[in-house]
Amino acid sequence: MTRHKVEAFEQSARANQSGKRRREEVDGTIQTISDIVPVPSELATRARKIMDMFNEIKDYSSNFSLSENDGVRRSIPDIHQVRETSSMVFEQSIIGRESIKDTVIEKTLSQNKSSTPESHVSVLAIVGMPGVGKTTLAQLVYNNAEVCKSFDVRVWVCVSENFDVNDITKRIISATNKFPHGETIANLQEELVKEIQDKRFLLVLDDVWNERRDYWEMFRLPILTTKLCKIIVTTRHENVARLVQTTDSCKLSCLNSNDSWSLFMQTAFLDEEHANNPSLQEIGKDIVSKCKGLPLAIKTIGSMLRYEPDETKWKDILESDLWDSKKSQNEILPALELSYKQMPMYLKRCFIALSLFPKDYILHEDNVVLLWEPLELLQHGGGANKAKLAVSYLHELAQRSIIEISTHSAYKMHDLIHDLACFLAGDEFVRTEGKSQVEISPNARYLSVVPTYPWEISTINISDSSDSLKAIIVIGHGLGDIVIPDDIFLKFKRLRVFSLNGAAPTNLLADSVGNLKLLRFLRFRCNIDCQIMQLPKSVFQLFNLHTLELMKPTFDLNTPIVCGIGRLIKLETLPPLEILSGYDGNLGELRNMRKVRNLSLKGLDSVCSVEDAMEADIQSKIHLQSLNLDFMNSHHQQLQQHKPGAVSHKELLESLQPCHTLRDLSIYGYRGLSFPCWVGNTSFSKLTKVVLSRCELECFPTLGELPSLESLKISRMYNLRCIGREFCCLNQSVKVFRSLVNLSFSWMYELSDWSGVKDVELPSLPSLVTLKISNCPCLGATFPMFPTLHFLHINDCASLVELPSLPSLMELDISNCSGLGPIIPIFATLYELTIYECASLLELPTMTSLWKLRISYCPKPMCIELPSLPSLMELDISNCSGLGPIIPIFATLYELTIYECASLLELPTMTSLWKLRISYCPSLCAVGLFPELTVLELSGPLKAEVLNSWLSLNSPLEHLEIYSSPLVSIPLRPQYLTSLATLTLSCCSDLQYCDGLVSLTSLRELNVQECPKLNIHFLDRIESETH
């Protein structure tokens, strides 16, 4: 059926491309020949048979009440057995969790101070991925002697997947040595009340999955009758924790390497003889590294090796997959697979597809989108929404403890979770790594190719054992080259996706790519320069193609590469198109591309006629969401003066009017003095984002009436002096910019007045949250009042002398505003303030909510006092020559950074300070006491007496870094550094001695860099003792 569909579509495309449309009268309507494609009788017969088969399958599914979650990808032994837990625990301690255990016990024993009606009931959630030790932690707390004495009734319930209120209530009643007689929930809850009313009650709910608030509220009704109730809930899902918790949840992560090794030794070594075997120790450490800190895996593998002295068996375990053993299948796999089973169907396929990434791969949001989108796993989103949908899927996987948040917009997956994805993927999803030719299963449908070394040239080298491949995705490192064999498109004619990310092809794309009649995605993305890209003409025979992405940022409309692109009428995504000088006009290629969602045209100044621009028929593209119109070339070269007889930019822009469904509009390099009337017209009711840059406007278009506009960015309007009332709306009764959230002005050298915003009678910009103004040196007028503004960033506005009172402002960033001062207004809600190069600013007012303050390059003395900043927690002062000899005392200060402040002489006592950085303060000669200091970083010249004071602090210091070239000796004092775990010595070119280092009993990590005179043999011995 697909083959006939392609052949029919080719006929349709050729008819559209020919430009000769014959019209026929059919039933009173006009149709083009392209609308009438003959259907072969063979196709009609096969189509009827296929439809009959689908109807039969549908009837079967209805008869057996099948749902989308009933399918099983791979059989896992005993996976459907209920995982039951009890309160019994064999561990006397929990390695690596002692401090967390103490915290949970403390919260369990604490008395609630609130006087609200439900304050006597508190819920603590323990959250983490499967196998991380949530249940063990809860068991140790439940069985703690002090906890046992403090409660009249203690009950442990393993809830698991089904949160049945009746069943859970019955089990609690049974745990109190009573038989539950009631059948209805009302009767059962009455029985439970009799057992727990006015008593001190501890309840542990292990392995909870329920996300329904109504179930939870119904369940907890009898508990409200207790005198005191503490509930501990263990769960893998953060949404569950947020639903039930009344206090901060306890997040469990994997163990560090030292604790992992300790747990393995405790589990795997039967006696000291085995524990001291160097060969077993070496293999054991590699096995522990493979487990990546997951306690369940460590204990399972350790118990398998406990009575096994044979070194060969240990090596077999190390070199095998963790799923290979029966014990692992019975203990590790079911625990992990339960998380998969609980996923909705749309998330299951996305999770399995992650097996195409190699282990330890950092899952950046962009890379995951590049994987999921071509595989059509983002079914519920279109166009730009697909990226947001992918991010929401990633967040959901993180909330389910399947993946972990690594950094901003990046995630990581535990190796065992990755193994689970590979296990469930079976033969359908296959990953190859390295250079050798790979035999893949005939059942393989999706293949990823991962080059092994970033700087080497790899080859896509796949056997032709599977001609049913639908997708080949290359996942490179962003630094290497790759060879695409010429015959690859002859082998795999059923490909829907060919995506190359992070690797640069060294050869031209073969002409045989035109054989891939089913290809939908063709993508080449690379982070480095490469010699390609010239596409073969056969690409324009790919009539099913809807995404074409090239590594080259643009390709030229006046080269053969674009001749024929108009045949690809299913294209939704295509690269930016550039029109160069000498262009002879073929924008008509775009006429029939009616499904395109994102269109970028550069070099519009080279278009020869309005008629040619109208040939593109932009207005008919109802699916177009983003339109970028750039009158300059791709290098943003300065436009030449308008040539006599050339097309007027205003007429040209008029002819490029888009459909009213547009969401995102950008216009660059426009030389007209005003815009056509369609720009800003209220009929564009879905327009959410507008960018205007390098336009020679003398007045703004009216944008304030756009009902959905959320983001507006205006930059490099060099001729604009004033933002008048026309910018908002000339009609005083209209509520302007009602949806605008983000507003930005930048590089507006002549802009001096924006009274058009301030003078509007109705509240202007009622939804504005973020305002950014930069490089507007003449803008000196007072800001309008923005009652909802939260974030204000002002940069290089020398004429600005004052700010208005902004009642909702939360974050203020001011830099290079030399005229602002001597004091800023009081912002009662401000919590973060950054001041950079504001020479006239001398004093800060009272700001009771401020907790983060940064001041840089302010040469004059500034008055900063404790009474005015009672909530300050983070203070960062750098390059302030006018800073006084002593920092004020801030009782709440948590983190302090001082950099290059030559006049600083003394640091006073700060009782809450946790982290301190001091850099290049050569005059510092006295320091106070810091009883909570945990992290200390010192750099630059240090006086000997000051260094001695730092190293003699009676504080729980855990992390110490010293960067100081003049130092010859560092006198460490072990009696004061009993908690020091990490020590870094760097760029200490004269350092020779480090007394006391060998006696630091808590030291786990020692980093020494660029300290050439320090005894290297001495360091080797120290490092061996710390590992």
The chain-level structural class is alpha/beta
Identify the CATH homologous superfamily of one domain: P-loop containing nucleotide triphosphate hydrolases
- Rg over CA atoms, rounded to whole Å, is 34 Å
Query: What is the CATH level 1 assignment of one domain?
Result: Alpha Beta
Q: What's the pLDDT, averaged over the residues?
A: 80
The portion of residues assigned to helices is: 10-25%
> Looking at CATH, which topology of one domain would you report?
Rossmann fold
As a percent range, the share of strand residues is: 15-25%
Report the span from N to C terminus.
64 Å
CATH architectural type of one domain: 3-Layer(aba) Sandwich
Low-confidence stretches: 19-37, 77-82, 556-561
| H/I helix tally | 25
Q: Give the overall form.
A: globular
Total strand segments: 39
Largest sheet: 20 strands, parallel
Structure description:
25% of the residues lie in helices and 19% in strands. Helix 6 packs parallel to helix 7 (185-196), helix 10 packs across helix 12 (278-291) and helix 17 crosses helix 18. The strands form six sheets. The protein has a 20-stranded parallel sheet, covered by helices on one side. The radius of gyration is 34 Å and the shape is globular. It is built from 25 helices and 39 strands. The longest helix has 23 residues, at 41-63. Among the domains are: 1-66, no CATH class; 98-251, Rossmann fold; 257-333; 673-787; 790-906; 934-1027.
